[in-house]
Fold this protein.
Amino acid sequence: MDTVTSADGTTIAYEKTGHGPPLVLVHGTTADHTRWEPIRPALEEQFTVYAMDRRGRGESDDAPDYSLEREFDDVVAVIDSIAEPVVLLGHSYGALCSLEAALRTDNVRKLILYEPPFLVEEGELTPAAMLAELHALVENGENEQALIRFFTDVAGMSLDEVDVLRAAPNWSARVSAAHTVVREEAAPGEYVFDADRLATLATPTLLLTGTESAPFLKDATAALAGVLPNCRVVTFEGHGHVAINSASERFTTEVFTFASESESLSQAP
């Protein structure tokens, strides 16, 4: 794998495959670059794919102190190492990192966000008691149980959706990265949805969401649709937070269509 150095000196790894214009992939919580395997072969036929390992998993290094801002910097470091403007695709926590990275670099041509996890209004994203329970499970070596509790009780996924993930080849890597869940659930709770600031992001943006996703994820997508000046929304009917797995062909079709469209989109209603 290739590497770049992030702003705080942390080494961030990514795997470069395929051919065509650059597409940077940013995975969500508990995953690594292998999260994209259900769709990466198809993407590689039309893009040069840069699938990164976010800090603390895969071949990327970590740092003693964690902050959401450093995750944004990591994505920017990968993007800015590429010689031409990229299409940036982020899923879940990776979508939040991608959204903020797009505000920090001019090297993003198009942006695709699949349900970034943040609260539109004040509240508690993940209850402190749940964070404590997840932490205790990891401390006791019950990584898989912590992972399942996270997906069902925090991300709002059905047991059928969890089974889809468990059947994927990278499930063991997710289990190994379960220790990152607590910090990545605590950080978005401090994220402030600033409509005025986000309204300055003119990058053409595709917002992806599922009818079966957790309400807070759909609310976040709707809020972005209301403020981003150059975006549209695609909804996966009958699917939730893991359409990358459960509707792979439809997912890649939406990516290809969006990437080939003109640079100006109609603002979402």
The longest strand covers residues 11-18. The mean pLDDT is 92. The CA atoms of residues 20 and 260 lie 12 Å apart. The longest helix spans residues 68-80.
